[in-house]
Amino acid sequence: MNAMFLSRMSRSVGYRFYSNSFACFNTTPAVDKMYDILQEYRAKNYSRELSSRFVKELLKHTDENKDGNMEYSEFKQFLDNIGVGDQMNKEEIDDVLKYVGGEDALDGQISIANMQKVLIDDLKARKK
């Protein structure tokens, strides 16, 4: 399978792919809402930046306690910092954290490095 086919498939049936492999994932309305918010913010503020640069710039100041993880409060602050904190409620944020962090999100925090990878990969896939 080529990358273009996998990219189209990822948008239409919910598959995320990494390099030469792909894995099934389930999006939720909250995850789709977050991506819409990020795309709109990027169009207004980072229109000339690559997806990867955009995500890195957004996330570099979110780790307030410098432990390499993002907790609910840090994610909420991240949304507030970009002016959209009122657009997602607690349940939606929890859904996003579970989507990005998987099993790791069960303890209330996710790896910022993992969040960066997932956001970059998914933004690129949704763009095509």
From TrEMBL:
Swiss-Prot/TrEMBL keywords: Calcium
Listed GO MF terms: calcium ion binding
Top-level taxon: Eukaryota
Domain EF-hand stretches: 50-85
Listed name of the protein: EF-hand domain-containing protein
